[in-house]
Amino acid sequence: MYEDKARWNEKYLNKPMPDEVSEIVKKNLHLARKGRALDIACGMGRNTHYLAHHGFEIDAVDLSDFALSKVKAMDAIHKIEADLDNYEFQCDAYDLIVKINYLDRNMFPKIIKALKKGGLFIYETFVETATGEGYHNPTNPDFHLKIEELLQAFEALEIISYQEKDAVNLRGEKVRIASFVARKK
Description:
The chain contains 6 helices and 7 strands, in the order ααβαβαββαβαββ. By secondary structure, the chain is of the alpha/beta class. It has one domain (about 1-185): Vaccinia Virus protein VP39 (Rossmann fold, 3-Layer(aba) Sandwich), CATH 3.40.50. The protein has a 7-stranded mixed sheet. Helix 3 links the parallel strand 1 and strand 2 (about 55-60). The protein is globular and about 45 Å long.
């Protein structure tokens, strides 16, 4: 855990990180009922702050104490420093779960259990490319989804939207992302 924490702290200190709210969150937030939210791997709180300003009470979870120090102190935000490899989500606790640019397949069943009935899951992260030509792909395949992997992993949910599309990361590199919105039946 300590090595992971040091690596993430270093990343937040020295690499460009997005500070704008994720478009997928802005575009789909109206589909979620107000209540409790979970921002998984919240980073410095770009989506957490947006959710708080829209009436949600948020558990903002991240391993990086540096990143969490940048999350604004607000009554509606509960900062949780935790190793997500071992963190257990409360069952049937959340009306909304947001997970942006972080992949841990072991979390998939935990997310489904953590959603309340009718709860919304908004997820966006990197997906492998069919050819890889001209794209920036992580060197470790564990850090990007397989094509259409989310459709199978979350088949127990009602899928509202799914899209795989080209994007450009903060370093100007072409990447492929999967955008996913689903509701617990």
